[in-house]
Amino acid sequence: MRALTFNPDLSPGVVPDPVPTRSQALVKVAAFSLNFGEIAYRSANPDPGDVPGWDAAGVVVQAAADGSGPAAGTRVVTFGWSGAWAELRAVDTAELAVVPEAVGLGTASALPVAGVTALQALRRLGPVAGRRVLITGASGGVGRFAVQLAARAGAEVVASAGSPARAQGRRELGAAEIAIGPENLTGRAYGVLDTVGGRQLAQAFYQLEDDGVVMAIGRAAREPAVIDFELAGTRSARGRIENFNVTTPFGPDLAHLVGLLAAGELDAQVGWRGPWDKASEAADALLARRVTGKAVLDV
User: Fold this and answer.
1) Which parts form a coiled-coil structure per UniProt (predicted)?
2) Cα–Cα distance between 265 and 102 in angstroms, integer?
3) CATH number at 114-243
4) Would you list the domain boundaries of the chain?
5) Residue 8 has pLDDT above 70, yes or no
6) C-alpha to C-alpha distance for 129 and 146, rounded to whole angstroms
7) Where are any strands of DSSP class E within 119-248?
8) S-S: 66 plus which of 22, 135, 176, 277, CB 3.0-4.6 Å?
9) Considering the domain 2-110+268-298, what is its CATH architecture?
């Protein structure tokens, strides 16, 4: 089969077909999405035969041998820590969800890592109805889902973005307030979903209410966070930072998010879409912050 590997130009090459285990379905991939983390923090010395990729959607061509998961012919969205950037993917049935006809497979492919991360991180904050929640990196993949999901949960959402251009459309997603850059964060917040790190994480921590919490999700700034805890103590008596990591299986959370998409209650925010032979172009645009939302590649 053809697949993308981390060769110099990120172009499709030929690799062996995946061999599914008894609990895996074999999926013909229709589209996959790119995530900042899998591009920016890829291995410096990947195995030439390794197929990267976390998020993909397609059609089951071979059901799992153990009887779990959907039948052949079912449209699905899938997650795994490798194997998405290919014509075929073997995926654990606990890591997929059925996609109804009302939802495009390209749109569904934008969901797994970004959508589930936002959902799980918000869940970790606990009840947020009536509470002020700050979303940093609100123009990115995780941030756009987080703004929508937090607003749906009843939070007063503050969306922070790096520029006015990248902040456009956040109010339509549910943000009550917009902040441009870490220096413009004002007011107190019960919770923070931080995907940026660095100065943004430090400034967000200083804005916490007593007993507030920062979910440290990502490090898009690729810079260290330096926090003056004595300064922080003058603003929040008991604020804390929690290192957040998404947990598997993804299946139930993916099914929930697909249901919201189908009901028109969630927007996947696909900001770039094209054929997979343009993967290098999409990756460069993602790293350079020229993509607002998710980048989707059609196979």
Assistant:
1) none
2) 13
3) 3.40.50.720
4) 2-110+268-298, 114-243
5) no
6) 14
7) 132-135, 156-161, 177-180, 189-194, 208-216, 240-243
8) 22
9) Alpha-Beta Complex (3.90)
